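Summary for the lay section of the report: proteins are chains of building blocks that fold into shapes. Here we show the chain for histidine kinase and then a coded description of the shape we predicted for it.
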Amino acid sequence: MGASPVSPHPHLLDGCSHAVLRFPRHQRARPRAAGSLPASQSTPPRPRLSDFLRSHANEILEAWDEFAATVNHDGKALDAVALRDHAAEILQTIAKDLAQPQSPHQQDEKGKGRGPRGIDPTPAETHADFRMVAGFAVDAMITEYRALRASVLKIWAKDGGGTEPEDLTDLTRFNEAIDQSIAESVARYTRQTHSASELFIGVLGHDIRNPLGTIMMSAEYLVRSGQLSKGAAAPIVNASVRIKAIIEQVVDFTRAQADGEMPILRVPGNLADQLAKIVEETQVRHPTRTVRFESSGDFEGSWDEGRMGQLLSNLLGNALIYGARDGEVTVRMWNAGAEVGFSVHNHGKPIPLAEQERIFQPLERGLHQQLSGEHREPTGLGLGLYICREIVMAHGGTLQVDSREGKGTTFRVSLPRTVA
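The coded shape description reads as follows.
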């Protein structure tokens, strides 16, 4: 009895698994009866997978639509019409790739993401562009490729695919081509997201900062010219300063999220001199509060002066907002050989121990204030302490908080003098 056709491995139909095929053991060829036709003349050879993709494109795309429409993302089913926009081009590209001969070296290069490509964007890259504009998350886009893989393998198996030795080679190359398309789409999506973030930063940095600067300069001019009293101009200036701080926080947050770290530019300088200026400016802006500054010793090193000022400004702002209104705020500097640092202390209700790590996460505005039952006017987006931590980490340092009943709250910054 001849060997019966063997179906593909059950994993063949799994959209996210590479198929594994089992083939029948070859038997010794039997003598052909006199007058009978060779098998090659009686049965035409079955098309290779590349030809199958072209001849069954419509059926594959219809099955792909049905599969993908069953997968929900954020409670919404993927639009079957929108799903097909670039699928035909992607399928055609894969079929063309399978039809080309491939050496072991070429296969190895493709596996490393270094396959040949032209100047123009690939269909997978174009697909990623449209998906990002349409608001698709990257995981939804990957699901589309899982659906395409599953649709091809299901229809191919129904047509008898997976029963010939050469099918294993075709299947391996097909999976490699799908993986390459996924890699191209994800890389393109990531680059486009980064570009959108940079554009957002540019809009904030130029189109909003410039008119805000005009408002501040106009208020100062009105005071100098005698057309407006300092008391009347103070709300305008203070509001502008707060808006500027929020813009800077959003810009820094966006850049840190996109680049993975806060950009800094180290220059030699005296940290004590830099921070003393910030304390003085803060005291001028808050004449009813007391901000003390203590330093003694050598504080020469290499830092980003602007970021250090931003770091202390954020910590002082946090202390003035959440500390006791009648208590003073103290900035105390220290040095210990290769390290220097400073602390910012304020009196007031402590931050619960369980929340002391969370306050450095973005968008955790006034968390300890909410837990303590206090209610004060929101002053930012909850990014200040997160940005403080990013600045310190970019300098290779540490930022810690100690907050206890009766002792107040202290933020302690430790920094290496130079880059390790």
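Put simply, here is one thing we learned. Residues 165-224 form the longest helix (60 residues).
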